[in-house]
Amino acid sequence: MAITVETLDKLERKITLSLPVASIQTEVQSRLKRLARTVKMDGFRPGKVPMNVVAQRYGYSVQYEVMNDKVGEAFSAAANEAKLRVAGQPRISEKDGAPDGQLQFDAVFEVYPEVTIGDLGAAQVERAQSQVSEDSIDKTIEILRKQRRSFAQRAMDAAVQEGDRVTVDFEGKIDGEPFAGGKADDFQFLVGEGQMLKEFEDAVRGMKSGESKTFPLSFPADYHGKDVAGKQADFLVTVKKIEAAHLPEVNEALAKSLGIEGGSIEALRADIRKNLERELKFRLLARNKNAVMDALVAQAQLDLPKSSVQAELDRMIEGARADLKQRGVKDAEKAPIPEDLFRAQAEKRVRLGLVVAELVRVNNLQARPEQIKAHVDELSASYEKPEDVVRWYMSDRSRMAEVEAVVIENNVTDFVLARAKVSDKTLAFDELMGQS
Questions:
Q1: How far apart are CA 176 and CA 357, in angstroms?
Q2: Average of pLDDT values for 394-399?
Q3: By CB distance 3.0 to 4.6 Å, which of 25, 304, 307, 386 could disulfide with 380?
Q4: Helix or strand or coil: residue 342?
Q5: Which pTM was predicted?
């Protein structure tokens, strides 16, 4: 019998399902008989519980299970016969007035939309380019030196300078009253590294050991401590110890400490360049991929399935609650999080997912095994034992699924860039790497 599909809205459809009562009753009896063989009940030996007792105890739940299964099977069969691509779960409701010996249900659901990609030749994409400079290698070496610096106490009459590590006691008051987090003893910080607010660092610069000072400090309006954000405090600070930083020389000893065989500075710089180029490649790929995806979505026309957007909203809200829980927020799982906070992002994700899936399907851009293997090898190359990392990826289906998704996105990116109107933009290495 042909399936009648009723259109309710752009993507919403309805079909009516009919189930023979006899087939449901037969399946219920069959399941109850299987259950009777193993069920345990007081007063009866296992397998000897009378059927009427089993039916009285479990009949309702078995009937519910069978109905769910049969309706699900009927819906799946009807959707397949009608060649429908169902988005989300159907809403099922029983109909009144069914013919004798039949049960009827209305299934209301959404289908995936027709996606029109549009003319990729008209898409405009800005493709970023960059390269590792000698200056960026120098800066990396300075970071490595700072990570290995040592400290030595300055003379008693020496003043605090940029880069010094200072030990201080401090106490802050707002309108003459102490506040939470405003007092500390033997507190250490590095001057000039942004560990403290600028006004605090400016006050300490030039002070000597044993010296005390009172100074005003204005907390920014967006300060993480909400109780003091936007307020002005008066601080008393006493410098107890000043230590000068000593950075290791750029020589063979430094190179060897960083794992460079032979210890040559040239080999150290070559190793740094290799690592920076690998990171730069991934950063460029991510930036250009985002640019391609934005252009792709701008060219496409489609309606969004509400059920898919809702499912994405639910996932994002669940993720937000998990993040709150990880931060120690009490009752995070019950935190009221308005859907509107994530709706635009959820709609963008669903739209992009549908557009990418259509482009992949039409143009056979699926990830090939050799591409997946090459990407895993590239991800593993920067580790000390790449073969162990490769095995770590290969041993988990979810990790490999993530790799496959990235490879597909890369295929889509290359496909679009080969057809779109591309304008190249050269970015400084620091500018690109500083972008989130």
A1: 63
A2: 92
A3: 386
A4: coil
A5: 0.71
CB neighbour list of residue 25: distance below 8 Å, 6 or more residues apart: none
Q: How far apart are CA 61 and CA 364, in angstroms?
A: 46
Look at strands 232-246 and 165-174 and give their pairing. Answer: antiparallel
Residue 32 CB contacts under 8 Å (≥ 6 apart), including other chains:
51, 54, 55, 58, 59, 62
Place of tokens 């009927």: 74
Cβ-Cβ contacts under 8 Å for 19 (sequence gap 6 or more): 70, 71, 74, 102, 103, 104, 105
d(CA 389, CA 380): 6
Surface-to-core class of residue 43, CB atoms within 10 Å of its CB (0-12 exposed, 13-18 middle, 19+ buried): exposed
Strand partners, 218: 232
| Tokens matching residue 211 | 């010296």
C-alpha 261: how far from chain center: 38
- Inform me whether the pLDDT recorded for 436 exceeds 80: no
Residues in CB range of 77: below 8 A, 6 or more apart: none
CATH class of 262-434: mainly alpha
Task: Return d(Cα 122, Cα 138) in angstroms, integer.
Answer: 42
**DSSP string for 169-216:** EEEEEETTEEEEEEEEEEEEEETTTTSS-HHHHHHHTT-BTT-EEEEE
Nearest to 276 by CA among 136, 432, 127: 136
Q: Which fold has domain 6-110?
A: Alpha-Beta Plaits (3.30.70)
In the predicted model, is pLDDT for residue 122 greater than 70? yes
**In the chain, where are the structural domains located?**
6-110, 150-246, 262-434
- CATH code assigned to 150-246: 3.10.50.40
CA dihedral 291, 117, 415, 426 (to 10 degrees): -20
Q: Give the model confidence (pLDDT) of 257-270 as tens digits.
A: 888 887 789 999 99
* Residue 176 phi, psi (nearest 5): 80, 0
Which pLDDT value is given to residue 368?
A: 95
